[in-house]
């Protein structure tokens, strides 16, 4: 039987093909189901009407209850109606507006419309009572309401029977097409009436029982038209949980499929190279390093393919972990590759890896986009023959022509710059090697399947736990939560533009002590031209202030030729330059332990995780290090809070959590490029961590007992996973590639 929810929305009374098109375009709503799952983003208590005087106070706008992004309901009489910005009866572009004055017993407020003027002016009558419902804005220091919903009090009854009113987000185009909040409310009401008796349950009964959920039908009704807060809570709880549950179930199932394929290369031996490197280290491993190496060794000899995320703050020593694990692969007769997001970083990796490998016989090479043809040919040949043990490189490594003899471990640094697809392309790198083995006339009996290498993804961007569970839900996670000893914590200070002279004096002091300084400028696509001008001006000011030859200043940015960039980078890395002026590109690279000051210009324009990454560029040596956040005077509340947070903690995980709370998970550095769908419909990774944990636990438990989800009581789960996949709502499936 066809599901009524699959009906095209154009067949709903009052919609039709034209408005259906608008819905499809603006809201991606095509079917009854889509529309039914178009939930309000906020609910307000309809019984609550604010006295106008109470919202005119500016301080109230700052309060939690009423602020510039929240909706309020007012009730009063339209005492004035005025068309402004017209010349000879014709609207002046950008100026024309319709202004009503709404007055109650306590005061008056202006209601402003910028479009649909004639129509609204005709409809809304002076000296009559209205309920105005909308968002408050501050214009010229005056609180007013722009494009409110306006209706006579009598009409309020059409809004469902409960006391809560759902607020749907709508766009300007939608409003012009007749889809204001009120219209959407009507559509939902009609839709519920039509579909409620036919709605099929989407969770197995035993889960509903166990979790004490309401039915799906009830949840859908109450998310749109809750009788009260309690009903709304119940509906949200169930819908959020369900969304997170299916996401986790899907991720874990993919993971199961992959690991059950077996085929993990068994790397059990700890051999010469490992031991030589280990005993030549000038320092002890941190406990955290020991722990994660142990975790990954277990994986690598388990017979299953390792897929692990290594999270560790900047400076926590991830490179060494990668090297030691690579050596295990090599000691077992396999190769390793280490992939970095940029050439600069690949170069740096190579340099530090070579240092670690001095005591070993391991052969390592670099492959990037700028490797010369002749050299590249040689490298590719040696890789395929197996005489090259470790290859460090960029995206160039996942190109088709790169083949390994026996790739045992692939390390991907800074995962968020690589898509999931790219990660999975590494898995097939051994195909030829394995098929060559099968074709070997020496005659091994069994056909050997291509074995995917073990995968370790390293990220220096601490990711909140809830986000990691989702974004990397298919990976196991290891955490390096300890910095090598002997580092003095970085001191972070916020400085205003007016304190620039003091900042320069301080820089001079440190440089005279033999230290080096980073000065970093934001570079944002939208304002790129101006950003470069700022950097240019900043560079000139520094050169003026810190005169050569006593002080040398290097500069690095994206518009330079690679040679110039490398030259200046080298100048700074070798200690010949005292100051490096750069755009935020240095965020992912460069290890200059002698640098002790990081000056971040226009710091208010960076996100928390980016600030944290930048700060991590100093404090790598034993010198006392400083991070100075320069800002202009105009700071939004958010920016101010970000800067304060930076000054108060150096813990990347704390900052990541805060970042997610402040900006939502979608904006966290790099997650949008990650290739995993985390665009959740109703649940929030920052607010619904508890549900997420519950959902993951339950999904894990179910899959342990019934890995194929073939038990009768789990049939619905399989059906739902398939349905979600068809809707494109499951995370990208890449298990098929392995
Ligand atoms: P990450 O990549 O995690 O930001 P790195 O691997 O670049 O950190 O390590 C930062 C610095 O710390 C490097 O100079 C490295 O040699 C050093 N280091 C790594 N492990 C230790 C350790 N256990 N003790 C002291 N220094 C260490
Ligand atoms: Mg690193």
Describe this structure in words.
- With 738 residues, this protein is of the alpha/beta class.
- The chain folds into five domains: 1-40 and 167-199, DNA polymerase, domain 1 (Orthogonal Bundle); 48-162, Beta Barrel (OB fold (Dihydrolipoamide Acetyltransferase, E2P)); 238-261 and 674-737, no CATH class; 272-435 and 448-480, P-loop containing nucleotide triphosphate hydrolases (Rossmann fold), CATH 3.40.50; 490-649, Rossmann fold, CATH 3.40.50.300.
- It has a seven-stranded parallel β-sheet with strand order 13-14-12-15-16-11-17, with helices on both faces. Strands 18-23-22-19-21-20 form a six-stranded parallel β-sheet, with helices on both faces. A five-stranded mixed beta barrel has the order 2-5-6-8-7.
- α11 runs antiparallel to α13 (318-331).
- The protein is globular.
- The site of magnesium ion has 3 residues, from α13.
- Magnesium ion is lined by residues 318-319, 460.
